[in-house]
Amino acid sequence: MRDLFRGYYKPTPEELAKIWQQCIFSFDANVLLHIYSYTPETQERFFEIINALNERIWIPHQVAYEYQKNRLYVISDQIKAYADIESILNKNFYNLRTELFKDHKRHPFLNTQEILEHLESSIEEIRAKIKLAQANHPNYLEKDNLREILTDLLEGKVGKPYCEDELENIYQKAEKRFSYKRPPGYKDAKKPVPKNYGDVVLWFQLIDYARVQQKPIIFVTDDDKEDWWLKYDGETVEPRPDLIQEIISEVGVEDFKFYMYHSDQFIDYAEKFLNLPVKPEAVKEAREIMLQDSATKRIPVESNYLRSVGYDSSTQVLEIEFRRGEVYQYIDVPPTVYTELMNAPSHGRYFNTNIKEVYSCRKLG
């Protein structure tokens, strides 16, 4: 029975150690893009590991394409964070001051003015730290040394693209897989075409490469959705057994092995495998960034019409929750429109004028 359902049996520690000794390592685009969110120390550890494994690395063409396509969006998000954080500070300080003066301007034993002055002084210190961090932030738009490092590391290690006929065939297969929720990719089914097919294209390219190489593969992805991972009670347990079973069956070699990690698990195991000094802060940071990226990105807004707004810059999908409870996604919305919506004096008025009848949408749920 084990021979028929090898994908459903988790490798033992001894089997995993053997896989690491023999395997080819492949990475998803989100792993490469998360490097821009790492501190310099974690970037250094990641590249140290990649350098050590360099002769055994390969990535699908779809991964390289998504990295190149989404790189500028990720960089822009990092730059935008400084203004966003300062805006949150200013907004909350304004609200706090309003609330204090509305109900507690005079109090026999509390000096609310003194409290506000202390808060304002603290916020000014924070603003100064934000400005300093912003000034020291590398200008990746002008000179992207991270991409240069990756380019050198991945030279000759990127798969070939599918031709148009092959892609059309895969798109048709993807639609069929979506219809009965065959992983991976069905969680992206509602994304715009052809972005919704990305994971299926990537998966087929991995399978094609595995057939040729017939070596074990470890795939590292920071996608945390259930079409990649087996979930139980809200927790990620292990890679989807049916995914592993599919690639094992497609390769058709008796001793072929396939396994998956998130970035934090990969860094943690690589430190042990390569006998590197342990850096638990790098593992923790990689995990936090992975979870932060996979979390729902809607944030509450003050509006009688809209309740919360989220935006995914990599797919240019704007997600809006209305006060009535409905949630809609608006497709191919430029980052500037999202920024203007969030900065508008009236979010509802801006939405009605600039988004409602301008961009195609779909209702969720």
UniProtKB/TrEMBL annotation:
Q: Where is the PIN like domain?
A: 24-243
Q: Which domain of life is it from?
A: Bacteria
Coiled-coil positions: none
Classification via InterPro entries: KTSC_dom (IPR025309), PIN_8 (IPR041578)
Q: Which residues cross the membrane?
A: none
Domain KTSC residues, every copy: 303-359
Name the record gives this protein: DUF4935 domain-containing protein
